[in-house]
């Protein structure tokens, strides 16, 4: 049996696609403008940024870098339907890019800059794992806290939530 190195490294993306889709589909239309603190993003901004990271993942794998001084797409949705439509677009795009990604592609250097200032140059596989996948997971977790604070039932990410299993009673933990 021969293992595909790209599948071996990023085979968890299928799971992350599904978990992210479930979490985003829980964002109610009446929570898009809610924020937990004046310095925090709104729920809509956070959900949009989470979606944009799928676009960013494709950029990491297809381009040689990103100049943050230039504009790039930002999801601005005001309803769950708009949010999910954009998510589906970027997920499909990233899936296609992953399908044509090779080990040689992953070894190529990728640079993050702001105009002439270079922040770093690292292999694409490192950047994709850190600023693609881990970044998505980080913001998806933030989104789950926003939703919990708005009493929205949550789907599980890496196990069940108290909303999915009544035997999990976290109110008495501690």
Terminal CA distance reads 48 Å
Strand order of the largest sheet: 1-2-3
Q: Class by helix and strand content?
A: mainly alpha
Shape: globular
Topology order in helix (H) and strand (E) letters: HHHEHHEEH
Averaged pLDDT = 91
Amount of beta strand: 5-15%
Number of helices: 6
Largest sheet: 3 strands, mixed
Pick out the low-confidence regions. none
Helix content: 40-55%
Number of strands: 3
Provide the gyration radius in Å: 18 Å
How is this fold's topology laid out?
Blueprint: H1 5-10, H2 13-24, H3 43-62, E1 65-67, H4 80-100, H5 103-107, E2 109-114, E3 117-123, H6 124-149
Parallel strand pairs: 1-2
Antiparallel strand pairs: 2-3
What does this 3D model show about the protein?
Helix 2 (13-24) packs parallel to helix 6 (124-149), helix 3 (43-62) runs parallel beside helix 4 (80-100) and helix 3 packs antiparallel against helix 6 (124-149). The protein has helices spanning 5-10, 13-24, 43-62, 80-100, 103-107, 124-149, and strands at 65-67, 109-114, 117-123. The model has no long low-confidence stretch (mean pLDDT 91). The protein has a three-stranded mixed β-sheet with strand order 1-2-3. By secondary structure, the chain is mostly helical. A hairpin with a 2-residue loop joins strand 2 (109-114) and strand 3.
Concise account of the structure shown:
With 174 residues, the chain is mainly alpha-helical. The protein is built from 6 helices and 3 strands, in the order αααβααββα.
Keywords for this structure?
174 residues; mainly alpha; 3-stranded mixed beta sheet; 9% strand
């Amino acid at each position: 049996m021969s293992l595909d190195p790209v599948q071996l490294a990023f085979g968890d993306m299928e799971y992350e696609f599904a978990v992210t889709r479930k979490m985003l589909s829980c964002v109610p239309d009446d929570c898009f403008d809610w924020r937990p603190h004046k310095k925090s993003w709104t729920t809509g901004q956070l959900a949009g940024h989470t979606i944009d990271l799928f676009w960013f993942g494709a950029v990491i794998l297809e381009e040689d870098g990103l100049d943050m001084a230039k504009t790039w797409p930002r999801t601005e949705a005001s309803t769950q339907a708009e949010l999910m439509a954009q998510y589906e677009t970027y997920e499909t795009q990233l899936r296609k890019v992953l399908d044509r990604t090779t080990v040689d592609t992953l070894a190529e250097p990728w640079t993050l800059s702001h105009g002439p200032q270079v922040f770093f140059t690292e292999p694409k596989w490192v950047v994709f794992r850190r600023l693609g996948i881990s970044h998505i997971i980080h913001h998806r977790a933030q989104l789950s806290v926003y939703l919990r604070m708005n009493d929205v039932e949550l789907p599980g990410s890496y196990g069940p939530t108290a909303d999915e299993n009544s035997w999990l009673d976290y109110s008495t933990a501690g």
